[in-house]
Structure formats: C-alpha cells, structure tokens
Amino acid sequence: MLAYIFRRFVYAIPILIGVNILTFILFFMVNTPDQMARVHLGDKHVTQDAIDNWKVQRGYDKPLFINAQQDATNMFTDTIFFEKSIKLLAFDFGKSDEGRNIMSDIKERMWPSLAVQIPTFVIGLLVNICFALLIVMFRASLFEITALTACVAMLSISSVFYIIGGQFFFAKLWNLVPISGYLSGMEAISFLILPIIIGVISGVGSGTRLYRTIFIEEASRDYMRTARAKGVSELSILFKHLLPNGMIPILTSVVVVIPTLFMGSLLIESFFGIPGLGSYTLDAIQAQDFAVVRCMVFLGACLYIVGLLLTDISYTLVDPRVKLS
After folding, report:
1. Any idea of the CA torsion for 89, 93, 96, 101, to the nearest 10 degrees?
2. For a tag site, which of 117, 263, 273, 307 has the least CB within 10 Å?
C-alpha cells in the first residue's frame, strides 16, 4: 500500500508541472504584463512610467521563460515563470498582485467554502442515494416514470434559475433568510441555509439518475434474484445487498470530490456574497490577478490527484478483493 501511494505521488509530479506550465502559457496568451498593470492601476490613460514601476514592484518586468540578457546559469531562473510558478511545487504561494499573502487568504476563505460545501455534499449524497433506491424499489411503475421525468426537468434547468428563484421567494418575498452576506460563528447559519438547500436541489437530477443506473445494473445480478427467490424482504435486499455492492462505482464519483470541497462554488458564493475560495478565484480572474489564479489552479490539480488516490484506497475498504500493490 505504501509503495503504491509513493508511486502515485511520484507520477503526480510531472502532471503538476504540466498544469503549471499550461496555466502560465494560457494566462499570458490573453494577457500581457502591461495589460495587467493597467487593470490594477485602474486607469486606461495611465503613463508608461507608472506601468513600468508596477511591473518592477511585482516582478513582471522580466522575460517569460528565457532571459537572454543573463548568463547561462541565470538565463532560466531570472524569468517570470521561474520566480512566479516554480515555487508552487514547494507550495510557496507568495503574494497576490495586490500585495496580500495568498496562503493567509486561502486559510481564511476556506472555512466559509467548507461551511457551504460539506453540508451540501453530505445531504445531497444521502438524498440522491435514497431517492435512487426508492425509484429502483418501485421500478416499472408510475412513480418511476414521474421521478425520472422530474429528474430530467431538474437537469434541464440552470443552477442560476434555482439561485435567483430561491433568493426571490425565500429571501425577498417571504423574508425567511437573508438574501446574501455572511457572518462568522453561529450567526452564519441563517446565511448558509438557502445556499445549502439550493446546492442540494440543483444536484438531485444528475445524482439520482447516476445512482439509479448503478443500482439497476446491480439489481439484475444473480445474487439479487437468489435473495428474492429465498423470500428476503425487498427492504433487506435493497439495504443489505444492493446498496453495499453498489458502493464501489458510487465511490468513483464521490470520493474524488471530497478533497475539492473547500475550493468552493463559483456561482453560489458569488450570488450569495459568501467570502469563500470560489468567489476568491472569480474575483482574481476578473481582476487579472495571475498570482492568485495560478495558485488556485495548481491547488485544484493537487486536490484532484489526492481525490483519485483516496478513491483507489477506498476500493480496498469496500471490496476486500481489490488489492493495491
């Protein structure tokens, strides 16, 4: 097991380097340091001296990859890529283009994101699995047709519709919860209720259909027919046989998501004014803050790799036949 984990981390190094390089290239394909300076200085008619001064202060006055003016030893190190991106591999995030410590911002903003994402993830998972089991239980009935129709309808509706509709009815019209904002401590609960509900509802359609497909495939196996032939009750079949054996494919889509929960949701955090990492990333994109964008993309790649590793490890817990070596 330890050897397998070590190999996976070794394999992750070239992936992270590739993500780092690709993010750097894509960002500077559509932005130049001069454009970034104009955005941050907030004046389209700013002088060239002010632009040059901004670039010098933030290290954007150097070449991107190769500094031909330096000798062979400093040709690749005295560049924007080396100073801004290579340090990410050591998780040295540095400062944003606005001068803020990025790691401090991440530590501060991850908690609001987790406060929204963890309840949404747990409640949504339970709701989707239970609803999918219920559909399988009443298979080939009017209930299944109605439920699947509702799932398709929910899939066809944009998440923005749920957000705006929820804010209008629950916050503005009925005054049950605040329309947006966030407070620390227990006072945050009133601001989190609506985003969590909307997050769960918006994922019911896709989640239920996925788990229903998994359970129906599992329900057609021989051990299920044998259990029914022995007179085992339908509830026992569903929860003692069908659900445990259907957990392996479910883990594929679930465990990989767990490490990325603290990255937050761009839409929900932006619409509800929650100061999490989702809104932090979106603000950085709008402000063309390359330092923050590259850190968040790199961090997302790291977490996704960790999620894949946790998925493989979780297989051994659910199915003893699976061995990692």
Report:
1. 180
2. 273
Whether domain 109-318 has CATH 1.10.3720.10: the reply is: yes
3-state secondary structure of 101: strand
Q: What letter represents residue 171's amino acid?
A: A
pLDDT exceeds cutoff 80 at 248:
no
Q: In angstroms, rounded to a whole number, what is the distance separating the alpha carbons of residues 325 and 189?
A: 45
Residue 127 pLDDT class (50, 70, 90 cuts): very high
| Cα 85 to Cα 291: distance, rounded to the nearest angstrom | 9
258: how many CB neighbours lie within 10 A of its CB? 17
Contacts of 71 (CB under 8 A, 6+ apart): none
Domain limits, the chain: 16-90, 109-318
What 3-state class would DSSP assign to 74?
A: coil
3-state secondary structure (DSSP) of residue 95: strand
- Show the tokens assigned to 237: 């079949």
Is-contact 20 298, C-beta < 8 A? yes
Amino acid at site 280? Y
- DSSP result, 252-270: HHHGGGGGGGGG--HHHHH
Q: Which two tokens stand for residue 12?
A: 């992750």
CB 300 within 8 A of CB 260: yes
Count the neighbouring beta carbons within 10 Å of the beta carbon of residue 44. 7
DSSP letters spanning 134-165: HHHHTTTSHHHHHHHHHHHHHHHS-HHHHHHH
Rounded-to-integer distance, Cα 20 and Cα 248, Å: 32
CA 296-126-234 angle, to 5 degrees, is 150
Supply angle C-alpha 74, 78, 80, rounded to 5.
Answer: 150
Confidence of residue 36 (pLDDT cuts 50, 70, 90): confident
- Asked if residues 51 and 34 have their Cβ atoms less than 8 Å apart, the reply is yes
